[in-house]
Amino acid sequence: MKPPLLLFIFISVSLEALPVSVTGNNVGAYHPTDDITVDCGSNTSSLVGGRNWIGDAADRSDYSPIEKTHSSTTAEASSSSPSIPGAVPYLTARLSRSEFAYTFHVTAGPKFVRLHFFPSDYPNFRRVDSFFSVEAAGYTLLRNFSASLFADYTHSVSFFSKEFCLSVREDQILNITFTPTPGTSDAYAFVNGIEVVSMPESLYYNTVVDSTEGIKVVGLPSPRTLDTTKALEAVRRLNVGGQFVVPADDTGMYRTWEVDDDYVTSSNIGVLPVNTTIQLNYSEKVPKYTAPDSVYNTARTMGTDKRISLSYKLTWSVEVDVNFYYLVRLHFCEFQIEINEPLDRAFEIFIDSQLVEDRADVISWSGKGVPVYRDFAVALLDHSQKKRTNLSVTLGALPDGSTLYSDAILNGLEIFKISTPDRNLAGLNPDPTPPASKAAKIAIVAGGTLGCTVLFLLAFFLHRRKNRAKDSTSSDGTSWWGPVSRSTTKSMKTQWSSLPLDLCRYFSLAEIRAATNNFDKVFIIGVGGFGNVYKGYVDGGATPVAIKRLNQGSQQGLHEFRTEIEMLSQLRHLHLVSLIGFCKDAREMILVYDYMARGTLSDHLYNTDNPPLPWKQRLEICIGAAWGLHYLHSGAKHTIIHRDVKTTNILLNEKWVAKVSDFGLSKVGPTSESKTHVSTAVKGTFGYLDPEYYRHQRLTDKSDVYSFGVVLFEVLCARPAVSRMAPMEQISLAEWAQSCCKSGAVEEIVDPHLKGSITPECLNKFCEIAMSCLQDKGANRPSMNDVVWGLNFALQLQVSTELEATDRVGVSVHDSDDSDHDAASIRGSGSDEASNTSGGWKSSRETATSTRARSNDVCDESTASYDAGKLP
Ligand SMILES: *[C@@H]1O[C@H](CO)[C@@H](O)[C@H](O)[C@H]1NC(C)=O
Ligand SMILES: *[C@@H]1O[C@H](CO)[C@@H](O)[C@H](O)[C@H]1NC(C)=O
Ligand SMILES: *[C@@H]1O[C@H](CO)[C@@H](O)[C@H](O)[C@H]1NC(C)=O
Ligand SMILES: *[C@@H]1O[C@H](CO)[C@@H](O)[C@H](O)[C@H]1NC(C)=O
Ligand SMILES: *[C@@H]1O[C@H](CO)[C@@H](O)[C@H](O)[C@H]1NC(C)=O
Ligand SMILES: *[C@@H]1O[C@H](CO)[C@@H](O)[C@H](O)[C@H]1NC(C)=O
């Protein structure tokens, strides 16, 4: 049950309207002829991110709906509904118990139609009663659709959008009609927002068939076309191995590209190479608008260690409705330094467990740095009376002799549902979700040690509560591994062979000594309870790394050291500091991490040697860190609680990308599904500590949310979480900032360097998010996902207000906040004394790659009656 394709519509920036694109590298972007955004139920228009959301309820609106009975109403969600998104177009809705339609006079050609929904109680309309159909250009897009059942099934979202592609003929008017399901008196139809955006003729539709360009249909011998009589529904669009791409960063069509972590279902999750320096060479067949650069310069591969890559298959699974054909587009681009010749990396591709390519070879398809995609179609038919099934995409390595590296690569994945011959795209509603399944995830706790000062402060400020709960998580890890070998006679390689050496590299002690000039003190960049952190260079001086040398007297046993390596090497995320490798000698235990050239966020807030960070950059850093925590909380199978979120644990690389650190040295938590929290001794850093956690010693992911709320206020005010010299009421930043917000005096505590640069809308939103994170009860705090969304929205408010201001004065956009990123000097990542390396483990997921029996004749049967050469 995965969230639907979410669209950050409010992060959108019109590319046509601006002389200079504020979204970065959009040269070569597509400029849609039709780019219509309707804010349904609103009587005003709002410029959000440069796109004008036109209210359909304004006087003489071009987009007032057409109705037979004139009985539709407009409304805002009842204020009692939880988690109102607070963003255009979700604030208002058009609702009716009879039919209504929108009419769009658009040019001919294929269009994206995006429908935005926020299922909620609206005055006189109950959330659970929405059942309606949507038709457009003769296609049924939705039928008897329940927005609330859909949102509950995919239960991490309260609002969502659905994206369709359909083609408008010459002289055709595009009507979108909403019809409540007949037969139930309470049924009503509603919609919060509508987008209609043109797309290039041949972006997804395809009328050419040759050996490479047609769509290979699983089980059919010859390729097919996809002509414009078909409509599509986007099911998933994944930037494989890469970052979330918001609509504004798409190539002009406002598509959203999700992170693929949640969809990798094989036991081994592969490795994530990236090459941001490669100059991508687009072609006529794959023009630049096909997908953003960031899709092609990041990837997921199986790794070049044959023993490992030949032992598993890399699989993605996406849930889809049964009884439809699906278009599966796989995006590829070779950018790794090792891969240059045909057969360097040739591999197998399976779709729905059926082999569709026995020797995929990206270099020979397109060449180095040249993006290319392949389209497949597959029928997923109902074999088990289920409404939904998983569509899988699987890569398999080829053995020696067929390829140099037994490896495989995927850069992007798009999955579309294809309309049936009777022009239908609608599936059935999911069954109502039992409330139990919405319970919080099981937690896995990051362990750690606590500095004495912090303990003292805790005892002092928090009434001397004792840490009485035993850390219940400390002894659970053995079964994963079997007995740890105590043998010292075996060679290192053998002894550690169960470790993921493709994900994580082994360094000899000699290499580490060379890298640090035999642990020279001048290379120390951090000191912690566990030992020292050195800056060093490996690979003959080419790669800077941070080297953590564990004290010989450190409590961390060999077992925990292993666990950390195994776990950290699997936890890969753009916004988490990654473990590069380790070194284990008779006496030494050493961990090698990515070096973070710009040190900690804390350094940039308090160290006056650094120029003050501009506001937008601070926001971006917060968004990055929030993504990292979100990944810890929900990207892995089990929730991982960081437990020590603070500005000294948010590191910045040379490109100012925020990375959460010190989630290492993990302990595996309880595995019973019934547990929603972990009882543990209170650990953390004073000033950031969740009061609920402190009181009840119940740790949940919401404890991190609290700490992150403190981080947000720190970023806003450039004031430490605890100022011991300050007047009593100002000692704790959390308390002081909350009281200032409540009394409307927040501007007084904003960092003086930011005065005048934060727009009031952005400041309000930012404070609202930070305040919600600091809610006393964990249950009332937002999830990190909500925080990411909220912060993105705050950023958007900032950007759009700046844009409006510039538009008004008629000058081109100059983004002053982005100035002079290079001014700051390169410094080491400071690891502070209270930091405790701690973390969690993502369990190995049971593989879903076993071949399901599926007879090809089913496909043939179902296609037999349609035109040869076309998809049914
Ligand atoms: C627009 O709608 C809001 C509430 O939704 C209402 O308060 C306001 O009076 C309306 N304005 C106009 C011009 O109708
Ligand atoms: C679309 O609506 C207009 C009226 O707004 C109507 O004249 C036209 O026939 C409709 N087109 C279709 C294809 O239903
Ligand atoms: C990125 O690609 C360029 C050009 O092929 C190459 O020179 C460079 O080494 C690559 N970088 C990485 C990290 O693979
Ligand atoms: C880009 O690709 C074309 C052919 O696909 C080739 O002729 C050209 O040299 C390439 N350019 C670069 C910079 O690699
Ligand atoms: C699809 O796979 C996921 C993860 O393996 C699983 O949780 C889900 O129940 C599957 N859905 C269906 C319909 O089988
Ligand atoms: C509409 O969907 C609901 C829930 O899935 C179902 O109970 C009802 O029978 C459906 N109604 C029609 C007319 O299909």
Automatic annotation (TrEMBL):
Domain of life: Eukaryota
Signal peptide: 1-24
Presence of the UniProt keyword NAD in the record: no
SMART domains from the UniProt entry: S_TKc
Keywords: ATP-binding, Glycoprotein, Kinase, Membrane, Nucleotide-binding, Serine/threonine-protein kinase, Signal, Transferase, Transmembrane, Transmembrane helix
Annotated transmembrane regions: 442-462
Domain Protein kinase: 519-794
Localization per Swiss-Prot or TrEMBL: Membrane
Cited SUPFAM superfamilies: Protein kinase-like (PK-like) (SSF56112)
GO CC term (a single one): membrane
Stretches with biased composition (Polar residues): 832-853
InterPro entries noted in UniProt: ANXUR1/2-like (IPR045272), Kinase-like_dom_sf (IPR011009), Malectin-like_Carb-bd_dom (IPR024788), Prot_kinase_dom (IPR000719), Protein_kinase_ATP_BS (IPR017441), Ser-Thr/Tyr_kinase_cat_dom (IPR001245), Ser/Thr_kinase_AS (IPR008271)
Region (Disordered): 811-872
Residues binding ATP, per UniProt: K548
Gene Ontology MF: a single term: ATP binding
Pfam families cross-referenced by the UniProt entry: Malectin_like, PK_Tyr_Ser-Thr
GO biological process, one term: response to metal ion
Membrane topology: Single-pass type I membrane protein
Protein name (record): Protein kinase domain-containing protein
UniProt lineage: Eukaryota, Viridiplantae, Streptophyta, Embryophyta, Tracheophyta
